[in-house]
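Raw record, unedited: Nucleotide-diphospho-sugar transferase
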Amino acid sequence: MAAGSARYVRYILVGFFVLAALYYISNSGPIIPPSPSYESSRGNGQSSSHHTTGSTSEGKDSSASAPKENTTPVKSTKPNFGPGLDPKEYPMAMTPSDPAWNELSGIKEGPRVNATFVTLARNSDVWEIARSIRQVEDRFNRRYNYDWVFLNDKPFDDTFKKVTSSLVSGKTHYGEIPKEHWSFPPHIDQDKAQKVREDMAQRKIIYGDSVSYRHMCRFESGFFFRQPLMLNYDYYWRVEPSVELFCDVHYDPFRYMHENNKKYSFVLSLYEYVETIPTLWESVRKFMKNHPEHIEENNSMGFLSDDGGETYNHCHFWSNFEIGSLKWLRSQAYTDFFESLDKDGGFFYERWGDAPVHSIAAALLLKKEEIHFFNDIAYYHVPFTHCPTGDKIRADLKCHCNPKDNFDWKGYSCTSKYFDVNGLAKPEGWENQTD
Ligand SMILES: Nc1nc2c(ncn2[C@@H]2O[C@H](COP(=O)(O)OP(=O)(O)OP(=O)(O)O)[C@@H](O)[C@H]2O)c(=O)[nH]1
Ligand SMILES: *[C@@H]1O[C@H](CO)[C@@H](O)[C@H](O)[C@H]1NC(C)=O
Ligand SMILES: *[C@@H]1O[C@H](CO)[C@@H](O)[C@H](O)[C@H]1NC(C)=O
Ligand SMILES: [Mg+2]
């Protein structure tokens, strides 16, 4: 009997000890019970999902849920990551010969940039954006856990929030766009705009009869970076529904942008459909005349014009992929540029796209070296593919794109011109991909 009760005492002590240990562990991070819905915030970086709606409560509790590695439930192993670390102590692996190149599992140690993914979408886009998110996470963000901001002209529904927040490894935020950023400004003549749409419909110009597409283009040109949720960040990476990423991203492109003083970047470039922008260049020239102070001396005019600025050659960076500086888009120069164009009404009297608008701004307001071509980010948005040129790089990055699909050096791409204007050497083998 005495031996028996000693055993019970031992069991109780052991039980108490186990409970205490569990209590300690659950408060220090690594194991956290699965949360029942997307509405709760989980402290675990790999699977944390958290959403806020609107613009009031975002990001305030972020420190409480700093991501932690979820490999071992035994002790609190906090990977050293987040803002404020010294980048020099965490050099990025840019080539296969750099140490840490093959570290593609777990949460990456090192500093993070003040950055977010951003997606404009409708509720009905949920499954198409789910595909995109999954690829971005698999190829990059599962190791970095950057946040993701979703914007919509209507409230997001529960399905959209549930699906997207379950896929994003960082925190998710959902914002509704105010009416003023998604409607006709007062100076637009509605009848004139409607006649344009009817005419474009007859001429079968893609999205030519669409009002919402025009609001979308104007919003992406002038307003996404001013949404309250976006004011919490310095850099953005735009992601659209149904895009693909074909290669592993071994380093942090946000950090690359920041540390190399890049303000805008692209993966695909091409000639714009002229019918959608007949007077855009006229409007740009008016801006240049009124605001010479904003025009950068060492700009990329050669990318936009083959006659020193007289006419536009219609080259632009494709804006469905962008990694860029929000500070630049919020600058006086860009603000003046957008407002000048907006006054001329071409978003509604024509069908100006945000791609030529962003591109022309980047080419004229930034120094050449502030624009970056991400050769190693392989990408698809219907109907074009950027697949890195060269067998070695594709093998190193475990790419799954077909090199024959690469658009870079084809006749309708402007990437060759970009290389020429910047005096960059084209990758070996580019001549074999020109058609
Ligand atoms: N909330 C909202 N988002 C929209 C609307 N129209 C387009 N978008 C989003 O704006 C972005 C661009 O629209 P897309 O329809 O992809 O336009 P596009 O890339 O020129 O053409 P696609 O070839 O159809 O992809 C996408 O992220 C869409 O989800 C809209 O009316 N409301
Ligand atoms: C991130 O950038 C925003 C906008 O510039 C700024 O307000 C915010 O304080 C920054 N956050 C951090 C953690 O640096
Ligand atoms: C433009 O580039 C030239 C040559 O590289 C340099 O001397 C000049 O300072 C640059 N101008 C500006 C405004 O950066
Ligand atoms: Mg699209």
